[in-house]
TrEMBL record:
It holds the Pfam family LigB. The keyword Oxidoreductase applies. It comes from Marivirga lumbricoides. Its cofactor is Zn(2+). This is Dioxygenase. GO terms for molecular function: dioxygenase activity. The lineage of its organism: Bacteria, Pseudomonadati, Bacteroidota, Cytophagia, Cytophagales. It comes from the Bacteria. Keywords: Dioxygenase, Metal-binding, Oxidoreductase, Zinc. InterPro entries: Extradiol_dOase_DODA (IPR014436), Xdiol_dOase_suB (IPR004183).
Amino acid sequence: MKINKLTESFNKTEKMPVLFLGHGSPMNAIEENEFVREFRGIGKILPKPNAILCISAHWETRGTLVTAMQNPSTIHDFRGFPDALFNVQYPAPGSPELVSDVKSTVTKTNIGSDEKWGLDHGAWSVIKHLYPNADIPVVQLSLDYYQKPQYHYELAQELKSLRERGVLIIGSGNMVHNLRMVEWKRLNDTFGFDWALEVNEKIKQFIFNDDHQALINFSKQGKPFQLAIPTPEHYLPMLYALALKEKNDTVSFFNDKPVGGSLTMTSLKIDQM
């Protein structure tokens, strides 16, 4: 285990909210729909953060890394979409201060620095709706794909103090995410298969009951969960958000709808009572 001396780069602030955003299709970056309108609405009521730490489903690595460059690039990590989407740039700066804080706060593992990745679409496609001026520094924290859900939850718990230093922590993924079963011709239709709706409701109930252990052990929850979460990368960012919940925090849901049959856009906001 690594032992670090805590060095705080940001001054103490009121405790920031935490978000988990169901990001869905990359097209949400440029389309006008109910989901992006809700993202914009959330952005208008959030306190302005010193920086954003984003855990995206789309950055899996060996070990845990943070983006450490001054000016992260906008990564178009997809294909088969229109040129208008590839033309989108989100030139938010990086944050050496936040990188330092993450490294000094986390003791569970050594956090490595990455100078190549940038901001993937799990980050910029939703953050651009919250802060369209790209004037808030953004750092991404990767998902170590060799680690089990319990590890990710415990690592996230070590980030709690960042909430009191003006850092908005965002998990970006999807509660239910099975691309192999998506009805692509109906991707813009708000409907879900029975198993997708069942899992979405059970996840929300576990959250309401603060039963985080059941969520950590999602693979033991039966066949519907296996269909809803065939791989963990879109689910784990939600665990990062929930691990940051304090006893006196409340959870509210928004964008709570399925799309394409096997995806849910359900998002949540954790905030003080």
